[in-house]
Specification:
Layout: E1 3-7, H1 12-25, E2 28-32, H2 42-48, E3 57-60, H3 63-69, E4 75-78, E5 84-85, E6 96-99, H4 108-111, E7 118-120, H5 132-146
Parallel strand pairs: 1-2, 1-6, 2-3, 4-6, 4-7, 5-7
Helix pairs in contact: 1-2, 1-5
Amino acid sequence: MLNIVLHEPEIAMNTGNIGRTCFVTGSKLHLIRPFGFFIDDKKLARAGMDYWHSLDITYYENFTDFVLKNNNPKLYIIETTAQKLYTEVSFEPDAFLMFGKESSGVPQEILQNYTDTTIKIPMREGSRSLNLANCASIIIYEALRQNSFTNLS
C-alpha cells in the first residue's frame, strides 16, 4: 500500500482531491499539522466525495511525530527544486510519497535530510508549480504503474 504524506496542507479542496485519489487507489493518507483549514470543512468533504469517511488516514502533530510513529520511513519528497525526475526512481510498493504545503513546499530543514530521495515533475522554465492534487496524482499513478497496479483493476 502506498503512503501519501501531506506536510501542512493549506487548501481543503486539494487535500480532499488527494484523499479521493488515495481511496480509489488503496493508498493510505498521512496528514501532518498544522492545516490551513478545518477537517470538517465542507470543501474538503465535497472534493473527497463520499470517500473521505472511508479513507485510511492518520493525523500527526508535526513532522517529528510522523517520523517517530512510522519508524523513520524512507521518504520520496516531491519538490520543484529537486535535481532528479520522478521517472528516475524505483518506488517500493509501500513507498512514502511526501508533498509540501501549497504556498512554500517542504521546509529546507526537512529537505536537507532527504537529498537522495527528493524528486520533481518536469515543467517548462519559468513555471512556479503545478496544482498539489495534480502532482499527487502524477506521482501516485507512476508508483502504481511501476508496481503493476497491484490490487487495482
